Amino acid sequence: MESEAFYAGFQARAEKVKDDFTAFLIDAKRKGLKVGAYGAAAKGNTLMNFAGTRSDLIPYIVDKAAAKQGRFMPGSRIPIVAPDHLDADRPDIIVILPWNIRDEVIDQLAHARDWGAKFVTAVPELKIS
Q1: How open is the CA angle 7-11-12, to the nearest 5 degrees?
Q2: Is residue 75 a contact partner of residue 45, using CB atoms and an 8 Å limit?
Q3: Residues with Cβ < 8 Å from 124, sequence gap 6 or more?
Q4: Is-contact 64 83, C-beta < 8 A?
Q5: What residues have CB less than 8 Å from 5, skipping those under 6 apart?
Q6: Which of 5, 7, 79, 128 stands 20 to 30 A from 107 (CA)?
Q7: How far is residue 70's CA from residue 100's CA, in Å, rounded to a whole number?
Q8: How far is the C-alpha of 115 from the C-alpha of 46, rounded, in Å?
Q9: DSSP per-residue string spanning 46-103
Q10: What pLDDT, in 10s, does the model give residues 20-55?
Q11: Eight-state DSSP code of residue 112
Q12: 0.85 surpassed by pTM
């Protein structure tokens, strides 16, 4: 991060993340798949605002923090709900917004695989598991 070379192509890499994420969400919507997201983290909010993601593509975000539940993500106005909403909705796709704790979240939500859910992160590249 201290060299000019690190920033060469940064915008292009950011645009690719945004474009791949948006295309994935639009494709999921066209296929009629249910999507939910996990983690009302600032980094995920930055991505969603950069990508222009709204509640038509991600209708809710679950978060364990009670202080965030019942509120909305800044900019997108996507509602933040309690984690038990995932079990009630049983989405086909769970987008993990705090991608740095991907493995931890997948372990916590491993039971979602029982209904066939797939986990998705967008950064540093789109990854589906």
Answers
A1: 110
A2: yes
A3: 17, 99
A4: yes
A5: none
A6: 79
A7: 25
A8: 30
A9: HHHHHHT--TTT---EE-S-TTTTTSB-TTT--BEE-THHHHHH--SEEEESSGGGHH
A10: 999 999 999 999 999 999 999 999 999 999 999 999
A11: G
A12: yes
C-alpha closest to that of 95 among 49, 48, 50: 48
pLDDT digits (tens, 9 = 90+) for 75-114: 999 999 999 999 999 999 999 999 999 999 999 999 999 9
- Please identify which residue in the block is written with the tokens 């990508």: 51
Q: What one-letter code names the amino acid at 92? A: D
Positive or negative CA dihedral for 129, 104, 12, 15? positive
What distances in angstroms separate CA 125 from CA 42, 90, 107, 114, 122, one per listed residue? 18, 25, 20, 26, 5
Buried b (16+ CB within 10 A) or exposed e, 17-30: bbeebbebbeebee
Rounded distance between C-alpha atoms, residue 116 and residue 70, angstroms = 27
Q: How far, rounded to the nearest angstrom, does the alpha carbon of residue 63 sit from its chain's CA centroid? A: 12
